[in-house]
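Forwarding the complex inputs:
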Amino acid sequence: MSIAERQASPAATTPAPAETLLEIRGLSVDYGLGDQPVHAVDDVDLTIHRGEVIGLAGESGSGKSTLAYAVTRLLRDPGVITAGEVRFYQWPKGSFQQPADGPTGAPGTVRPRTIDLLSPDPRVIHAVRWSQIAVVFQSALHALNPVLRIGTLIDDVLKAHEASMSGRRRRARAIELLDLVGISQDRLSSYPHELSGGMRQRVMIALALALRPSLLIMDEPTTALDVVIQREILEELMELRQRLGFSVLFITHDLSLLIEIADTIAVMYAGRLVEKAPAKALFRAPRHPYTYGLTRSFPSLHGERQVMSGIEGSPPDLRDVPAGCPFHPRCGFALDRCRSEEPPLLTITDESGPREVQCWRHDGTGPVPLELGATPPRADPDVARPVSRDTAGRAGRPEIQRRDPS
Amino acid sequence: MRIFLRRVVFYLVAAVAAVTLDFFIPRMVPGDPVLTALAQMKSAPPQAIQALELQYGVGTGQGLWGQYLHFWGMILHGDLGYSMSMGNVPVTKVIAEHFFWTVVLVGIATVISFVLGTAIGMLAAWRRGGWLESLLPVTTFLQAMPYFFLATLLVLIFSVHLGWFPAINGYDYLNSTIGWNWAFIKDAVYHGILPAATIVIASLAGWIIGMRNMVVTVRDEDYVLLAEAAGLPRRRVMWYAARNAILPQVSSFAMALSFVVGGSVLTEIVFSYPGIGFILLSAVKSLDYTLVQGIFLVITLVVLAANFLADLLYVALDPRTRREA
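Prediction (whole assembly, two chains):
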């Protein structure tokens, strides 16, 4: 569907499925409109539920960040959204509770407001961005204005959205926010360069949480940090999420990180969403050959020794994506069909519940290779959320099922 | 405060070095100012030579070191010797008379050019492809033109043909009396418009390009994206960008300020403007060493002062430079 068609049809006709927060349908993003546009994101569907932590993994250039920037309408020139719908469901603040704390607000009584994020009216996205969907940028060093104090940065955000807030209350809120991310209030008068990398990223998170958003998009937020600080920040983030009840879209190339924090993982390749499944299921029993390759390209700290294989070749040139399945030149399981026909995103069901994969090997017409048919752990809502503070990264860390391709 | 003191000390050392150079360089130049002066006289008894040497502060028979100390003593007493070519008046008086004209004319023109160019550059970068950007080739063309040609052209058009502005001088020598009265100020402004305009026109492109390029770069910084994403008001977003983009402009501005005194020779020659540049030229022509030396000293000190000011300004603008090293 083109943008023109999308605008013609009223966006809010479909009723909101229960607990849906963000719905992306058929989103495509091109860079450049000329003869050879780069199809950075190609017909991606993704749904984020309330309170969910969804991980978006993929290598550089797979379109994961572009997807996030398209959704928040922060694409830089020459990025253009060429097709798709993005709907945000604005639930009343405070209507969400973590499943652990009891049932969610009585179903049917609370109705969300549907907002078309791709609306041509800039006021629509302005009303949603930051107050509902906030973004944590990749490098906090570059995302914090070097000539302004931390207090001013936070104050600017509050001032822009809470016109009625007095200066004193804004300051109190800024202190509260810093406290939330574990920074003492005397840092309000510090400049960004006076903080360590980890503190800067905490400030960035505080800035993102300033307006109590319901969705936090994190674009490789810990890539620039060392692993110890990385872990600290992630644990605190998950704690905050538990407390404040926001959803997280966590973008990273580090699949091993996602397994620890995400409920669901979506894997992107060449602008397509190639697999989406509950985190453990995706990790232990990948269905897509690309995901399978990813799970075998980093060592497990706790599992048995395994042969690391990586993935042969390099990602395709997005101006000239291979015909058929874009992964077929690198795929060890490719069929003839894969070279000519692009597979649809199939919904398959296994022990972990329904999951999605874009691969002809799973269309039911032929046998599934052993490597792509491992048995996943059973669906269990409590287990599906792996991070609680004491188990993270230790006993809770899943192992890789070892099977040699033959 | 410590940073401030360190800069002060640094600039004091630099000033001492500058004065030292200012003393030695003329002495390395071949020729003798006293003999030059004497060549114009018929006869010269030794007493006359000695009297002249004392008067001009050269060759007082103390050796180089003694002369150097003597030179310092003179400077600290605010005495720069006497100018021969200006009729034996103290150099300080000559400089004081002309310094003001240069500082006002070139200083104001430089500030106008900086403010205007920076503002245009900012807006041009913010609205890429807007009409402001099309100003750029025009101003670049004007800057690329040799200055004396541009200035002469403007004089030809606006003074000779249109008769809107006077072609030469800083004020009406015949009908004005120098002083802080309204008529004189009006007359001086009227005489200053055209030379100031030539300076602005000839230097505008540099400021526009500098600022535009910085803003284009800074616009892509994540902190500007963050400001936009967080829904900050448009003006505030622009401020986020401009506040960072202006930092290199400030250094360029300091450089430009230091050229205010020394670099305006061409303007003052074209317009016969009674400033420092104009008398520097005549001092060089008439081998008036004490005056040249005095002017150089003033120019050097102004350059140092401008740099000092820029340093302080930069520290005020960029917190990252405040780190104690």
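Chain B has 13 helices and two strands.
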